């Protein structure tokens, strides 16, 4: 009998610039712990006793230095992926992550500051919906594609 996989609960944010909806710019950041360029959305684990939304705001503050956002939409389902073999010992006892995605807009007074207590990113940029996959090329690309297509189909991004 095959071992049942365990997934770490996680939250992820598709962050829109404060210019939204007039201009649809999507925030991506380059991880500071990888040798090659790995661009992604802010994300992180959900702590015991924490709601998904509480985790969203905490993770944004920890990773990009601000949680000054408005929630625009939420992806209706959990998305999951398995860790690559190279990450399996670091993330033990989990086989992967199940994620809840939110589309959020930075408030006009929000200030991105990657110089957080434990910096996860070394740089960031805003890209258009059409450009995003020129930068996202890792294992989460199929999930990003599905989530972004959902937000696009529902009229939130274009």
Describe the structure.
This protein is α+β, with helices and mostly antiparallel strands. It has a single domain (7-153), classed as Nucleoside Triphosphate Pyrophosphohydrolase (Alpha-Beta Complex). The protein contains two helices and eight strands. It has helices at 52-64, 141-153, and strands spanning 7-16, 26-31, 39-40, 43-45, 69-74, 79-82, 96-106, 121-127. The strands form two sheets. Strands 1, 4, 5, 6 and 7 form a five-stranded mixed sheet that branches. It has a three-stranded antiparallel sheet with strand order 3-2-8, with no helix packed on it. Strand 2 (26-31) and strand 3 (39-40) form a beta hairpin. The model has no long low-confidence stretch (mean pLDDT 94).
């Amino acid at each position: 009998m095959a071992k049942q996989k365990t997934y770490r609960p996680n939250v992820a944010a598709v962050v829109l610039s404060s210019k939204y909806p007039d201009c649809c710019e999507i925030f991506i950041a380059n991880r500071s712990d990888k040798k090659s360029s790995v661009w992604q959305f802010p994300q992180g684990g959900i702590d015991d006793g924490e709601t998904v939304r509480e985790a969203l705001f905490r993770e944004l503050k920890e990773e990009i230095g601000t949680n000054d956002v408005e929630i625009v939409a939420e992806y209706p389902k959990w998305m999951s992926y398995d860790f690559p073999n190279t990450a399996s010992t670091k993330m033990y006892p989990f086989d992967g992550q199940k994620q809840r995605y939110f589309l959020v807009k930075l408030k006009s007074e929000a200030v991105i500051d990657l110089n957080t207590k434990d910096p996860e990113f070394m740089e960031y940029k805003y890209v258009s919906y059409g450009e995003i996959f020129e930068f996202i090329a890792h294992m989460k690309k199929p999930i990003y594609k599905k989530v972004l297509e959902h937000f696009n189909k529902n009229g939130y991004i274009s």
